[in-house]
Amino acid sequence: MRVINDISEQHAEVTGLDVRRVNESAEMQSVSRLAGELWRNHYMPIIGPAQVEYMLDRFQSPSAIAGQIAAGYQYFMLYHDSRPIGYFAWLADSADSSLQIGKLYIGQSRQRTGLGSRVIAFTERHCRTQDLRQIWLTVNRRNHSAMAFYLRNGFVNGGCLLQDIGAGFVMDDYRMVKELPPA
């Protein structure tokens, strides 16, 4: 497991913070377990238990995560004092000069501490090294706290997206976009 120190070194006020790239099966299982905790806590009131369980199985099971990594996603776990507190994942598209943040989840006790903003800043630095000019993501239209977070971090609402994900469920999202100025 490779420790990425950019986030913790750049923000010394958070001691004991590690960012680790996810590559091994055991790490994917850890992400899946954490996703279950975080998603059930946060999304039950927004999309309901049936859709949460369906999406966890389809998108955040260890095998789904392994498939995403095989397709080019990079997953990272956030640890504080060796305890997992969040995770994020992204997928670069060099043809489009963009990077999609496919996942960004922080445990409730760590939200509103600046950690999510550090992840965004870390992502921006990565994009600049890869000559990527845009970061984008999707956020559930009823997830008001996340939308406010992304707006505070320089994203703009790029419009509605409605995607059928099977089993009678849809993702009813906004596409949030942040343009990065040339270096």
UniProtKB/TrEMBL annotation:
The keyword Acyltransferase is assigned to this record: yes
Keyword Nucleotide-binding on entry: no
Listed InterPro entries: Acyl_CoA_acyltransferase (IPR016181), GNAT_dom (IPR000182), YpeA/RimI_acetyltransf (IPR050680)
Highest taxon of the lineage: Bacteria
Pfam families attached to this UniProt entry: Acetyltransf_10
Keyword terms of this UniProt record: Acyltransferase, Transferase
Residue intervals of the N-acetyltransferase domain: 17-181
Protein name as annotated: GNAT family N-acetyltransferase
